[in-house]
Design goal:
The structure holds 2 protein chains of 2 kinds. Chain A is α/β, with parallel strands linked by helices. Chain A has 13 helices and 12 strands. Chain A starts with a helix and ends in a 6-residue tail after the last strand. About 11% of the residues of chain A have low confidence. The radius of gyration of chain B is 20 Å and the shape is globular. The N and C termini of chain B lie far apart (42 Å). The chains are: A alpha/beta, B mainly alpha.
């Protein structure tokens, strides 16, 4: 018996130490598995006398990957938390997945970039309203020596050239993201059928991946890709790719905030919409990135119809 | 080569200076995987004993099925737990999705077959005539189980550590049910995958090195336990 104890005790101690002590050392930032994390309190609204509405301690926001990767959310998060006294939890995903989370009721607000699907989302009764708050541009990137010769072309002409040559790889996100949706719009604008393009040969590659891995793949395969400008700037040092086709109205990439009808705390969800279009935050969004990337990453556009 | 050297440098710097973000993510990762392992051990060691000692039709098939589940894809485990915990799912009202407890649940689910199967194998390793002798001496079922478990303790311990290893190194389930929320559900593996997405290659490798260092530490501890015995 005693030998069994001698053997087991240190191991049990080791795991217990990891499981509990680890959290005790840094109680503030570390979320222990043992501590309640999602306490919901009902607060009586004494002013209006309405039935108690639910107040949550965390607001879940699903944002598109390109916004997240630039670090903009990390910058805005503490501001929002301080202003509204709520813990803000930011989840990142492609537009398709973010909307899927919203449909399931797993998040309270979505921030995405695909107008057609956003409008459908609202028509379906899941999103309450669509408020554009910032935009930047999509770009077509490719090898600096540009074997397909698309540099400086209009986006539709560049896509047509890549398709007709069918020689140089085009790497598609292929993941139902907002960038993928923009790619499909460009094929349509070029007078091509997306479904026939994607099955037209080995030159068309579906990465089924995020923007970063897609750019890496384009770099490795000496191919072309459609990217949002922010992610591309973040990757510029690591990949040997150039911007070949740039800004233009057809390439505008509009980010919009949508509070959900299923939000647990609809007031807090609407606070996020108000926050993003407030003059202070709009100014901040416009200034963001100048220091790190040497240029503006987003143009604020509250009140404009994009 | 330059990238790798840079990454090792960065990793060393992060560890030596106890980089607050890395420390926080590492501690959370250890807490989550240790909790998962502990819960899975407590739940599934008795079940493994039961499956080993009991005789019932289809026992072999059950054990084969458990062993097949060793290779359950982590994203599949993640998806199943996601559907279970999603607001519209059967346990949606518990609101566990996108919390660290959701990751613990997914990891317990993921490592359960590993612990079950390997503990059964460990018990099998104890000579059958030892069991027979014990029974002949009049030992009850519980006593037999305790003695056999004790005889097999090193193999049982390595089963637990295999479970811990799978829990700490999986990323698919943690990403899906935890959501990789900064300061809340970010683990070493999901931080690595975010770093790759953002093009932060060196930082990703550095986090990978931290993870491997802990894996090495754990396996060294096992080795030392074995040495102390002999």
């Amino acid at each position: 018996m005693s030998s069994r104890l001698r053997f087991a005790a240190p191991w049990l101690g080791f795991f217990l130490f990891l499981a509990f002590a680890a959290c005790g050392e840094q109680p503030a930032p570390v979320q222990s598995a043992e501590v309640p994390v999602d306490t919901v309190v009902a607060v009586e609204d004494t002013v209006t006398g309405y039935p108690p509405r639910e107040r949550v301690e965390r607001l879940l926001v699903a944002t598109t990957t390109s916004l997240y990767d630039t670090g903009l959310w990390a910058y805005m998060e503490p501001m929002f938390e301080e202003q509204y006294g709520v813990e803000l939890d930011i989840l990142y995903a492609g537009t398709g997945k973010a909307l899927e989370w919203g449909t399931r009721g797993d998040v309270d607000v979505v921030v995405v970039h695909d107008r057609a699907r956003e409008e459908q989302f609202i028509a379906d009764g899941i999103g309450l309203s669509r408020t554009p708050f910032a935009y930047n541009f999509f770009v077509i990137v490719g090898p600096p020596d540009d074997p397909a010769g698309i540099r400086g072309m209009a986006p539709e002409a560049a896509m047509t050239a890549l398709h007709d040559a069918a020689t140089w790889p085009f790497i598609s996100r292929g993941d139902e993201s907002g960038t993928h949706a923009q790619e499909q719009r460009l094929w349509t604008a070029a007078g091509l059928e997306y479904d026939s393009v994607r099955t037209s040969g080995d030159w068309y590659v579906e990465a089924a991946a995020g923007m970063g891995p897609t750019l890496n793949m384009a770099d490795e395969m000496r191919g072309y890709a459609l990217s949002d400008i922010a992610t591309f700037l973040a990757y510029q040092g690591d990949v040997d790719l150039d911007i070949l086709v740039g800004e233009g109205d057809a390439m505008r990439n509009v980010y919009a905030v949508i509070p959900l009808s299923t939000a647990r705390d609809s007031v807090m969800a609407d606070n996020m919409r108000a926050f993003l279009i407030s003059p202070e935050v709009q100014e901040l969004i416009g200034a963001y990135g100048v220091e790190a990337w040497g240029r503006q990453l987003f143009t604020p556009c509250a009140g404009q119809d994009f | 080569m330059r990238e790798l050297a840079e990454a090792f440098g960065l990793a060393l710097r992060m560890i030596v200076t106890a980089d607050p973000v890395v420390t926080e993510i590492t501690l959370r990762t250890l807490a989550i995987s240790a909790s998962s392992t502990l819960i899975a051990c407590l739940l599934f060691t008795p079940l493994a004993c039961l499956l080993h000692f009991a005789r019932f039709p289809g026992r072999g098939a059950v054990i084969s099925f458990i062993q097949a589940l060793y290779s359950m894809p982590t994203v599949l485990a993640g998806l199943l737990i996601f559907l279970l915990l999603s607001r519209t799912g059967p346990l949606g009202s518990l609101r566990l999705l996108f919390t660290s407890r959701a990751i613990v649940i997914a990891e317990v689910f993921l490592i359960a077959p590993v612990i079950l199967g390997l503990v059964i194998s460990a018990l099998k390793g104890v000579a059958a005539d030892a069991t027979d002798t014990l029974r002949a001496l009049g030992a009850g079922r519980l006593q037999v189980a305790r003695v056999v478990l004790h005889e097999a303790r090193f193999a049982v311990l390595s089963a637990f550590l295999m479970g811990f290893g799978r829990a700490i190194s999986e990323g698919g389930a943690a990403m899906m049910v935890g959501g990789n929320i900064a300061g809340r559900t970010r683990t070493l593996t999901t931080a690595i995958s975010l770093g790759i997405g953002k093009g932060e290659v060196a930082a990703s490798i550095a986090l990978g090195i931290v993870l491997m260092a802990f894996a090495l530490l754990v396996s060294l501890l096992v080795h030392l336990t074995g040495l102390r015995r002999t």
